[in-house]
Amino acid sequence: MKKKQLHKSNWLVTMLLLVMAILMPYGGAWAQTPSRPSIGDGSADKPYKISTAAELAWFRDQVNSGYTTISATLTKDIDLAEFCHAKDGTKYTKEVSWTPIGNSDNIENMYQGTFDGNGKTIRNLYINDISEYIGIPCEAGFFGYAEKGSIKNITFDNAKVKTTADDYRTGILVGVAGSCIENIKILANCSVEGKNYVGGIVGRANGDIGNCENHAMVNGANFVGGIVGNYVFSDKSITSCANYGVITGSGESVGGIAGYFVSGTILNCANYGDITGTFYVGNLIGCADECNLNNVLGTGNVTATSADRAGLLVGNIDNSSSTASGILAYNSSAKLTINGTEQTGDAVKAIGGGSLTSAEKIMAFTAEQLKSGMVANLLQKNVSGSAKWGQKLNTDDYPLLGSADEVYLDGNVTTNCLGEQVSAFTNTKPAQEGTLTVKHGDSPIHHESVAATCTTDGNIEYWECNLCHKSFSDKLLTQGVSTLVVSATGHKYGENDKCTMCQKEIPSLTLGNNLITIEKTYGSRDEISGYNLYKYTAPEDGRLEVTANSNDNNTCGTLWESPTAASRLTYDDSSNWPDFKITYTVTKGTTYYIGARKLDGNAIEGEVKLNVKMNGLEGELPTGMTGKGTEAEPFELKTADHLAWFRDFVNEGNMKACAKIADDVKEIDMSTVCHKADTEKQVAELSWTPIGNFAGNKYQGTFDGNGKTISNLYIINAASSSVGFFGYAEKGSFKNITFDNAKVKSTVDHYTGILAGFGELCIIENIKTLANCSVEGKNGVGGIAGMASGDIGNCENHAMVNGANGVGGIVGDYRGSGKSIISCANYGVVTGTGNCVGGIAGGYGSGTIQNCANYGDITGADIVGNLIGDGSICNLNNVLGTGNVIATSDTERAGLLVGRIINSSSTASGILAYNSSSKLTINKIEQTGNAVKAIGKGSLTYPEKIKAFTAEQLNSGEVAYLLNGSKSEGELVWYQKLGTDAYPVLVAEEGNTVYHGSFTCCDGTAASYSNSTSENELVHVASATLTSPVFDSAKHIYHMGCSNESCPEHKYAANADGTLKATKADGKFYVEKLALTDASTAINTQAQFTVKKLQYSRQLTEGQTGYVTLCLPFDIKAADVAGAEKCYPVGDMMIHMPTADASVLKFVLMLDEQSVIKAGTPMIVKLAAENAAQKLVATAQNVEYNANFFANPTAKSLTLRDWDGKSGFMTICHELTNASIGGVYTTTPMAEGSYSFRADGKFGIHTGDLSPYRIYLNVQPSQSASSRTMLFSIGLPDDSSTTGIRIISLGDGKQTGSSAIYTLEGQRVMGTPRKGIYIKNGKKFSVK
After folding, report:
1. 3-state secondary structure of 13
2. Which of 178, 568, 650, 1245 is deepest in the core (most CB within 10 A)?
């Protein structure tokens, strides 16, 4: 029985433990709760006494809550494993990273108290932090950001700190410290790893650091140090600190004490660990701006993986005013490896680049000397303050900082200067310590002084030891000198721009690229003498930009107002690192001086380019382009080449450039700068590169299309994100553009639009895409923009839009907050293969959609709507949706207005109208009855504003009237041409305002809405619409628009295609104007009407003078023919003139003079000598038009006479059997033998068809004249002539016998002769 009971008890315990295990959160141990220390109030006098990890976590949380000045003291060693640890799958513990104490979120969270470790140890600190906010500085360490106060007396055991983001500052103790740090020790089982600003103790510091010791391994990229990654203060110091850990950086500035040291003092410090970096690598410091080194030691190996600077003490020192004191000792046996090669001889340097004053303090010691105690003795003798150098002889290989084993010299010792071993050092203090004397050679080498020049160093007078080759200022070799060189002075320019010493003149720069040479400089970076100078005179007011390209040689640039200026105007802004880029607002006509140097002052081998831009331009604008690219004076674009130039200009970094299409341009055709391939023409495909991109060139200017059209934009398979005419824009403005035949296709995941791919906080207004446009992409695809977050107004899309998710007629993905889409309409078909598809917006974050409409069909898989696919917080005001909506999946999130509304605080106002006749199809099933929803899922406040209207109501004008707030006066937005528009529209046109009242339709029915205020004016209905002109045979006119002539939609037309509008007055029909040319010679019409202004025009060849012929189908006044000096109607007579040459017949065609020349009259026109328009134009008023208007006039016969020597009685001419003259109104084939004016202005045989509105001459020679040449002239009445006729030759003759054929009766044969006998060239021949 007892066993049974015991078994039951065990079973209960087991089950209880199982339940506890199940209930235990995934974290392994029970969740730890921070607890308040029981002792102390956090003040400086009564700090919190912390004895547990829970109390330490509580302290951390208090600081991070804003109590940043509280203080604490550890009373016991702390193990943090309960509060931070790595993931352990075997113990079911998830990773928990320590949250640092203090951070830089704001000044209130930076720690400013005193934290005293009290000599205790903190174990198992664990940080594995990955920043989610790239670009935002963060701090990682036991402390995050300590601004003031003090952190001291702590040892860290098994600390593991790791960060992976570029912007972290990382240290085991603290990420960033402005406070004092002292007595911190990091044990060898610790490690710290990060990217930039990584230190064994602290990532970045600007306060005093003392008595700290790091044994941890430190890994990073740039600015990596054993004690501190980046030290940035000038009057502070790092004192009595030592690094024993291996320090590795994959980038620049890596050192045993500090990676990058801005300024200050390093006193009594040592590095014993090996140091590795890419460049700027040293035992103590990687790179220093300015440093004061006092009594320091470096013994580790130094490795630079590139060919740049590295040294066994410091990698690089920028400022030559840096100083040395005490002794700067280093191990000459340590390895210095640069770019894979171990350095030897003179290549082994203590300072890789730059120099220190009192450089004689730098001393190299062999491993034997270091081990002997000699160096420890020297360091201790030069100690200032409480620091201690010691060494346990025969045990320690080198001096140790803080060692109690002081080294003494037993007796006076003299040694030679070559480093003779001295064995007189001991750890036992002698009664009297001896002195060490170094003896130099007896034959010093004397060096005379050499004066420096502008560009060449000189030297002081000095003596060189013949043994150790050290230099001294005296012959006895007692005063050592470190600096022998007298630096070149550099050029010192006067106001005349010439060097006062060598007369070198400052070179001038021009716009664009300038090749320069950067020589060594001798002044500091704060002095004008520290630069190579170049000058530039500003041609206009504006922004000067100078950019260097030195092939990554690290250049620095400045700008000065004169060659003698004491201070600079501006300096390198590091935006073009490693080269410089300076910008400055300059004044026209002022000369500016550009300074350029290598960062370290040395010369650069090879040429360097300086690119000079003025107001963003590095040269002249393209031909025909004007403007400055500012908002006040935008670039004025006229051609596709101008657009491409502007695109390149923006993408080169001029993000705020402004442009507009010029006033005198109607359209810019882009087919020359982007087009598809044409194999027949051997033309390769050329895709438009968008204006603006995410890579630092987000467009931020204003682009004004000025109401013009951009045609043939072509983008195909763009592989970069944000695709459109513009790519990525931020806070820019686009307006007044129409896109014609734009074809945009992207294969990337995000943001495609015809106007813009990504428009962040941009203003978009008055943009229209025509129906022949199309846009296709993946996610975030819009007819106007792929993504937008600014105000959008008065935009209209007719393009077909295709994508996957987030697809919209206007915008694919709208992320505005407090912004709006106003007065926009989509007419295009919008299709998405995924979710969130809408006519206005596919996805809508928050804001207002007001007075917008969708008329196109919308298709998507899920979350589909006429206006919005997916709306988070949307305020819908006065909107309309008429398209069909299709959701291809089985979903409830599809509606005839919106697919889904997430936030129920979304509102409705005005009316939200939709077409109840539109189809809502879900998963291939057309919805009916209550399944037809306006909002698929979700709701709006004031849902009663949602109203369904039938197609008849939409067509009647009722909805347009209601959308306007039931008014027809004042500010209106909605319009509708009744009987024509099936729905309300957002575009105002003449006669499309909707009025409410009692009206009569043109079919006799009643109506409540009209486009007229008059109740007597008929309302047009669609049933009475005439889709094409209808001819009325009774009235001899065409009807258009409406079959009821009383309807305002009715119009008259004078031709069958309706292009010639007519009006009715006094029972007659009139056409305002009809223009005739040689290309327009007929009208497709049966109508009869009067042309109020009839005009014929003929284009002449350039410089054409002389005579032309004319025959018109309407009466003209001779004086009204523009381009003519005189118009002569051809008379009724042609005269045969006698000639001495019997083989020639000469005829004169007599002309008349009349002020009014009747229709059908052949004319010869003398052209005006001056005719700038190069046109001949004849105009007439009120010309009657009938079916025979263009019938060619009948030719008239000419009276033929022989000239008798005077203009009296003349006998009948028998040389011609007959002659006639006529004209044509249409292109007419001429009979063989017809004469006309040729292109050279001569009468001659006509060949081919005769052009419209010209005249021709037909003659029938007699048999006797058939073989003779005929010449033609015109005769003008001339009272001053003795004959009364002024004869002008217009013909060069034609040997008629060469081709003319006659019958035996003397009649000329036209065409091919039939069977018979004929005469040709005076001889008979037969045709069988």
Report:
1. helix
2. 650
- Total-model pTM: 0.55
The Cα–Cα gap between 1276 and 1164 comes to 11
Q: Which is it for strands 659-661 and 542-549: parallel, antiparallel or unpaired?
A: unpaired
Q: Give every strand in the sheet of 608-614, ordered side by side.
A: 512-516, 608-614, 542-549, 581-586
**How far is residue 898's CA from residue 904's CA, in Å, rounded to a whole number?**
13
Those residues with Cβ within 8 angstroms of residue 329's Cβ, 6 or more apart along the chain or in another chain: 296, 297, 298, 363, 364, 365, 375, 378, 379
Q: CA-based angle 328:330:332, to the nearest 5?
A: 140
Residue pLDDT, tens place only, 533-544: 999 999 888 889
Rounded to whole angstroms, how far apart are CA atoms 358 and 684? 69
1312 confidence band (pLDDT: 50, 70, 90):
low
How far is C-alpha 241 from the geometric centre of its chain's CA atoms? 51
What pLDDT is stored for residue 877 in this prediction? 96
212, 214, 455, 616, 719 from 786: Cα distances, Å: 56, 54, 59, 29, 15
Q: How far apart are CA 1263 and CA 1255, in angstroms?
A: 26
Is the pLDDT score of 223 beyond 80? yes
Q: Alpha-carbon distance 995 to 370, whole Å?
A: 105
CA distances from 447 to 346, 355, 464, 471, 477 (A): 21, 22, 8, 10, 13
Per-residue tokens: 1265: 């004249």
Q: Do the beta carbons of residue 114 and residue 150 sit within 8 Å?
A: yes
Tell me which residue of 523, 516, 517 sits closest to 492, measured CA to CA. 523
Tally DSSP H helices, then E strands, for the chain.
7, 122
- 659: pLDDT strictly greater than 60: yes
Give the pLDDT of residue 17: 41
Instruction: Report residue 550 as tokens.
Output: 């030195």
Give me the phi and psi of 1172, to 5 degrees please.
-65, -35
Taking CA atoms, 1219 is separated from 1169, 1200, 1213, 1258, in Å, by 32, 8, 11, 6
536 and 544 Cβ atoms separated by less than 8 Å: yes
What is the gyration radius of the CA atoms in the chain, in angstroms? 50
Task: List the Cα angle 531/535/541 in 5-degree steps.
Answer: 125
Tokens at 1319, concatenated:
């005469």
pLDDT single digits (tens) 1252-1300: 999 998 888 887 666 677 788 888 766 565 555 677 766 544 433 334 5
| C-alpha span between 1296 and 516 (Å, rounded) | 82
| Strands in 688-829 per DSSP E | 702-711, 714-718, 726-730, 733-740, 743-746, 750-753, 756-760, 763-769, 774-776, 779-782, 785-788, 792-793, 796-797, 800-803, 805-808, 811-814, 820-822, 825-826
Residue with tokens 């043109």: 1002
Question: Which residues are CB-contacts of 305 (< 8 A; sequence separation ≥ 6)?
Answer: 276, 277, 278, 339, 340
3-class secondary structure per residue, 552-610: CCCEEEEEECCCCCCCCCEECCCCCCCCCEEEEEECCCCEEEEEEEECCCCCCCCCEEE
Residue 20, H or E segment: helix 2-23
As given in the structure block, the two tokens for residue 158 are: 């098994």
Burial code (b: 16+ CB inside 10 Å, e: under 16) for 1055-1071 equals: bbebebebeeeeeebbb
Q: Collect contacts of 1035-1041 with beta carbons under 8 A, ≥24 apart.
A: 1035/1069, 1036/1069, 1036/1086, 1036/1087, 1036/1088, 1036/1089, 1037/1062, 1037/1064, 1037/1069, 1037/1087, 1037/1088, 1037/1089, 1038/1062, 1038/1085, 1038/1087
How long is the chain? 1328
**pLDDT tens column, 38-47:** 999 999 999 9
Query: Going along 60-195, which residue ranges are E strands?
Result: 72-74, 78-79, 114-123, 126-129, 138-140, 143-146, 150-157, 160-163, 168-171, 174-177, 180-186, 191-193
Contacts of 478 (CB under 8 A, 6+ apart): 472
Tell me, rounded to whole angstroms, the distance of Cα 678 from its chain centroid. 29
